[in-house]
Amino acid sequence: MQFTATQLAERVHGEVHGDGSVILKGFAPADRAGPGDLTFAEKASYLEAAERSGASAILVSGEVQPSSKVVIRVADARIAVARLLPLFHPAVEHAAGIHPTAVIDPSAQVDATAHIGPYCVVGARATIGKRCALLSAVNIGTDCIVGDDTRLHPNVVIYPGCQVGSRVSIHSGTVIGADGYSYVFDEGRHRKMLQVGIVIIHDDVEIGANTAIDRGALGPTVIGQGSKIDNLVHVAHNVQIGKHCLIMGQVGFAGSVQMGDYAVIASQSGVADHLTLGKQSIVGAKSGVMRDVPDGALVLGVPAIPDKLAKRQFIAVQQLPELIRRTRELEKQVAALQANIPAEPGAA
Asked: What's the predicted TM-score (pTM) here?
């Protein structure tokens, strides 16, 4: 695919400085860009590298000054990149049809426009929507529902009864609807509590590779519309994730957590059971959340506390070695003073 600078500018409501007829055939970072490439400089500090590159044009944000190259000026270069990349790298289209090696239960409903790849399994009474793509070795359990335009990458497993909305993308190795971790101690052993709920994934969700989302114990585990979950995340039974949340890699939720809309959890954080994370709250990386987080709050640390308090504690911990050194010096001075104090008259 190739476009003129003017055509690209129109797509992102930008303006061209220089020759708008220059042909752009690809998108590349400054250190790899060559003739025919578009690169970007979202900050003034990045512009020098972009100008030194072999790129034919530069996408710039706001007040970044024009360069010697063709410039497409937009309000936010990063947003413009997200909108333009699909033009140069369009999604792979998968032809409608069912591969001969796929196993489809006769009672399943597979739309004629869907793509069912090699070695996929679709269970009894399952429904596969329009233009869905099950790429290979995908297992859809009995009574599952998969909405329109959803893409399931190789080796995704959807356990029985779970529901996946439209325009959802689930990456390889992810398991939706495995049993939650629930046991009671009975007669000297751990007795399994049956997990009879389901998982409901709403529209426009993306789930990374090797993530596990457990089915609810009784009611559903829910992933809200537009939320994005990274690789290697564990969502336990009955967790309720709101709309447009961001959950980064290696995060773990214990059971029955409630996460408000537009909340963010950074990598390698853990959330204890039955807690509420408020709307637009943020949990910093490597945090351990042990209590509810209010709407709009930013928390850090283990246990997670308000960010300003956590940062003061981090600074205090860094000062401990010096504090210990000074304390030892003071102890030596006190000991020396005590050794030089003469004994009181009449002391034994």
From this structure: 0.89
